[in-house]
Amino acid sequence: MKILLTGPPGAGKGSQSERLVKEFGLTSISTGEMFREAYKNNEKLGIEAMKYINKGELVDDDITNEIVRKRLSKKDAESRFLLDGYPRTVAQAKALDQMLSDMNSSLDAVIKIVVDKQVILERMVGRRVCKQCGQTYHLSFKPPKVEGVCDKCGGTLHQRPDDQLESVLNRLEIYESKTKPLIDYYDSRGIFRSVNGDQSFDEVYAAIKKALEDVI
Ligand code: ADP
Ligand code: AMP
What is the spatial distance between Cα 216 and Cα 205, in angstroms, rounded to a whole number? Predict the structure, then answer.
């Protein structure tokens, strides 16, 4: 099972992928997470990427493709993975096709989580993330048991710098111009499905599972 979750920033990709990965034993490949991890570990790649990320811009295609290529070559990504937030441009989608075809493989399904701008803004402004383990919360929709403290590891919650309004608005514009064209790219291949993301966490999850019925 090789799937891609796409959709605008704040659509709920990370939240849903956490459950899919657990239930179906998939390897999670989130380029955003990989960049943040590299930054946390003081790696050159992470420090370089964060300059773009904080402004809400995309990291260079070649750099992004290269980290995915390395990740896909590991044993645990051979047959079951979930891509979250990659590809984000048609050039990345073409590079991914090449990587997969070199492995005699291809994507089974592309799921887009659809939400409108107002919902996105509400979700992004209230998102809080654990500095230590990366677990995601929302001030209103998924609050931690103790304010500012991660339920999972006790780490401190913070707002991602790229969740500041200015950066969010930039990310939304970039999504429209660079990432949305992926829909046509995958639709023409018959593997594209969309799911209403403006429902409860559980309802969105059920809709995704339904959309994946033939590949599960
Ligand atoms: P993405 O990975 O697409 O950027 P996230 O999964 O991080 O999005 O979700 C963005 C924010 O919205 C988080 O704070 C999350 O808790 C919240 N959220 C996600 N899905 C829902 C939902 N179905 N209902 C309410 N809040 C949600
Ligand atoms: P995410 O965690 O998916 O919200 O990604 C956070 C940020 O990381 C994005 O706004 C981009 O700046 C960068 N990023 C993540 N994935 C990609 C990608 N596939 N291509 C370029 N930049 C990316």
Answer: 14
Q: CA 99 to CA 79: how far, in whole Å?
A: 13
Q: Is 17 helix (H, G, I), strand (E, B) or coil?
A: helix
Which structural domains are found in the chain, ordered by start? 2-115+169-211 (3.40.50.300)
Residue nearest to atom 1 of ligand 2 (CA): 32
Q: Would you say the CB of residue 58 lies under 6 angstroms from ligand 2?
A: yes
Atom 19, ligand 2: residue with shortest CA distance? 86
> Cα(200)–Cα(212) distance, rounded to whole angstroms?
18
- d(CA 190, CA 21) in angstroms, rounded, equals 23
Active site residue 160: yes
**Per residue in 24-59, pLDDT tens?**
999 999 999 999 999 999 999 999 999 999 999 999
Task: For residue 60, give the DSSP letter.
Answer: P
Q: What is the DSSP letter of 75?
A: G
